[in-house]
Design a protein that fits this description.
- The chain is built from 19 helices and 15 strands.
- The chain is an alpha/beta fold.
- It has a seven-stranded mixed beta sheet with strand order 1-4-5-15-10-11-14, sandwiched between helices.
- β10, α13 and β11 form a beta-alpha-beta unit.
- The protein is globular, with a radius of gyration of 20 Å.
- This is Tryptophan synthase beta chain.
- Pathway: Amino-acid biosynthesis; L-tryptophan biosynthesis; L-tryptophan from chorismate: step 5/5.
Length: 456
């Protein structure tokens, strides 16, 4: 059918395995270091925070990890997710490019995040864990873990970055509807939260601070573990169902991407769409250009330093080598709360160092303009985070127009914006501004990076 718009897979085509890009890396990742000894961590070092099954997924170099049947059974609620050809957007742009997008907003929580939330809840349930703590920015991850906790009978406590807690009350309501407890961070519930508030009572919060609070609670109780929505290897692993499905759907469309675009905050949705294609290229297949799009107000890949750093602000976590703005960096409160993390996933950072991916940064108003243009053409209003991928894809399509090239562009529309309407109202009213990070604060945060001796 020449004018086909959507490409659907039957439930039987839900992937049976996650793809682990570590199996195909031309150079292994730098090790994760213990914050006390500066030596590589072992499984026992991570056991207070994660069940052993997830720890083993974090370190394995096996190419395929079997998806447990109970997880695949829940995936059936929204997977396989549809792939769309953005024909109307192509017409509006007047581009010879073919634009495809994988739409993850069909999940119950409205984003890609349940792909790992369900898996993490399953492994914790099997390990006998009854309580999970986590952090969230915009709330997509928090609502996804709340959903997964409800399915497996696990109590979930979410520390939400204060500025997003105030900006997005309906995300908070969704978490609470699923049975989770949602707390604005920094809070008075943890020793670290109280210390932050003592210095600055009106602190807007950051993902690094919220992680510290969640980790502090998890480390204090035997029945409690910590769950992370991005950054770590096992989280990125779980998201590869997105790209694995997309590869099969692109075959249905008789197409293969020349360019793949994804928004990047911690790196999970970007990895989900891109890693299977990068892996195919590393094994001798076609090598698409891979473009990571990040917010100009929190530009870890384009302005950060590739160095060992803590994943949280209180320095409770192990050290990973990643592109970082410094663990004490607090970005301005722009609306793409899911992209406001000070660091980039170590795996994504490693690929950037190997020149396997590119990175660009855009301001929020131009991303919202792209989201509005996309919605008026395609009908789906993207989340503020996903708008960055939309902007990146539109820029690639316009480049094709200038160059007269009929390239195939694939991007991940990682979530809808139905809980972000205040941000769109502010944008259409002209109240949304491009927020600049404090250059002096960035310099201070980078100057405070931990000193890690080079390996012998």
């Amino acid at each position: 059918m020449g004018d086909q718009i959507k490409y659907l897979l039957d439930e039987s085509r839900i992937p049976k395995h996650w793809y682990n890009i570590q199996a195909d890396l031309p150079k292994p990742m730098p090790p994760v270091l213990h914050p006390g000894t500066m030596k590589p961590v072992g499984p026992d070092d991570l056991a207070p925070l994660f069940p052993m099954a997830l720890i083993m997924q974090e370190v394995t170099t096996e190419r395929e990890i079997e998806i447990p049947e109970p997880v695949r059974d829940i995936y059936r609620v929204w997977r396989p997710a549809p792939l769309f050809r953005a024909r109307r957007l192509e017409q509006v742009l007047g581009t010879p490019a073919r634009i495809f997008y994988k739409y993850e907003g069909v999940s119950p929580a409205g984003s890609h995040k349940p792909n790992t939330a369900v898996a993490q809840a399953f492994y914790n349930k099997v390990a006998g864990v009854t309580r999970l703590t986590t952090e969230t920015g915009a709330g997509q991850w928090g609502s996804s873990l709340a959903f997964a906790g409800a399915l497996f009978g696990i109590d979930v406590t979410v520390f939400q970055v204060r500025v997003s807690y105030d900006q997005k009350p309906y995300r908070r309501a969704l978490m609470e509807s699923y049975g989770a407890r949602c707390i604005p961070s920094p809070s008075t519930e943890t020793e670290y939260g109280r210390a932050v508030l003592a210095k600055r009572p009106d602190h807007p919060g950051s993902l690094g601070i919220a992680i510290s609070e969640a980790v502090e609670i998890a480390a204090q109780r035997e029945d409690t573990k910590y769950a992370l929505g991005s950054v770590l290897n096992h989280v990125l692993l779980h998201q590869t169902v997105v790209g694995i499905e997309a590869m099969e759907q692109m075959q249905m469309a008789d197409a293969y991407p020349d360019v793949i675009v994804g928004c990047t905050g911690g790196g999970s949705n970007f990895a989900g769409i891109a890693f299977p294609f990068i892996g195919a290229g590393l094994r001798g297949g076609a090598k698409p250009r891979i473009v990571a799009v990040e917010p100009a107000a929190c530009p870890s890949l384009t302005r950060g330093k590739y160095a060992y750093d803590f994943g949280d602000t209180a320095h409770m976590t192990p050290l990973t080598k990643m592109h970082t703005l410094g663990s004490t960096f607090t970005p301005p409160g722009f609306h793409a709360g899911g992209l406001r993390y000070h660091g980039m996933a170590p795996l994504v950072s490693h690929l950037k160092e190997l020149d396997l991916i590119e990175a660009v940064a855009y301001h929020q108003t131009e991303c919202f303009a792209a989201g509005i243009q996309f919605a008026r053409a395609e009908g789906i209003l993207p989340a503020p985070e996903a708008n960055h991928a939309v902007k990146g894809a539109i820029e690639e399509a316009l480049r094709c127009k200038r160059e007269g090239r009929s390239e195939t562009i694939l991007f991940n529309l990682c979530g809808h914006g139905h809980f972000d309407m205040q941000a769109y109202m502010d944008y259409t009213a002209g109240k949304l501004t491009d927020q600049q990070y404090d250059e002096q604060e960035l310099a201070m945060a980078l100057s405070g990076l931990p000193s890690v001796p080079e390996p012998a």
